[in-house]
Amino acid sequence: MPTDMLTMRRIYNSGALHRDDEEPQAPTERGAQPQAARSIDGQTWSDLLIPTWLRYRAVSVDIEVPQTSYPAGTEVPFVVTMQNALPVPITLPTDSPRPWTWYVDGVPEASHVDSVPSEDGSLRFDRGERKQFRRRWDRMFRVSDDEWEPASAGEYTISAGLSVANAGERGLYSETTVSISER
């Protein structure tokens, strides 16, 4: 080790350097911390800097079914995909703690019984995150707490959307049509 380095080490270890946050010419303890020790919560910053309308616009919702026609007695599987197009994490405020729901012919979760709480909630996405949810409709409609009716043959619209006002107008809603046959 060079002599200059040994001398500096002795001075530093001896406490000869005076550190004081109040004195302008003295080194400060705060300034001695490396920059890497500081962290920034990207989620908080992006929520503060990106307006809500832009966060809503950055998310897309899509619903897909493996086929468009199903015979009687068969469940209808579907996949709901949501994706954040922004390169930063975002949080979307929602009108319910259940951030999204699916519908059959406009009936939430094929149930005429209201089970969605009315409190606010949120849905969080990492940068560029894609969320996928798999659900099945058993071709039944709930008409009371303990009573279900089978869906008759015909065409049904299965849709999904975020729990926000005007989800369809904001592009946060998607739908597809399936056909249920008699046999």
In words, what does this structure look like?
The structure is a single chain. The protein has 183 residues and is of the alpha+beta class. It has helices at residues 3-14, 29-32, 42-49, 52-58; strands at residues 59-64, 69-70, 76-84, 90-94, 100-104, 107-108, 121-125, 130-137, 140-144, 147-150, 154-162, 173-180. The strands form four sheets. It has a five-stranded mixed sheet, with no helix packed on it. A three-stranded antiparallel sheet has the order 1-3-8. The radius of gyration is 28 Å and the shape is elongated. The N and C termini lie far apart (88 Å). The mean pLDDT is 82.
Key phrases:
183 residues, Immunoglobulin-like, 2 domains, three-stranded antiparallel beta sheet, 17% helix
CATH architecture of the largest domain: Sandwich
Low-confidence stretches: none
Instruction: Kindly name the structural category.
Output: alpha+beta
Which CATH C-level class of the largest domain is it?
Answer: Mainly Beta
Number of domains: 2
The CATH H-level superfamily of the largest domain is Immunoglobulins
Shape: elongated
Q: In CATH terms, what is the fold-level topology of the largest domain?
A: Immunoglobulin-like
Strand order of the largest sheet: 2-12-11-5-6
Largest sheet: 5 strands, mixed
Overall residue-averaged pLDDT value: 82
**Helix coverage percent of residues?**
10-25%
Distance between the termini: 88 Å
Number of distinct beta strands: 12
β content, as a range? 35-45%
Number of helices: 4
Quaternary structure:
single chain
Task: Compute the CA-based radius of gyration.
Answer: 28 Å
Q: Could you spell the SSE succession in H and E letters?
A: HHHHEEEEEEEEEEEE
Domain DUF7974: 48-180
Protein name: DUF7974 domain-containing protein
InterPro entries: DUF7974
Region (Disordered): 14-40
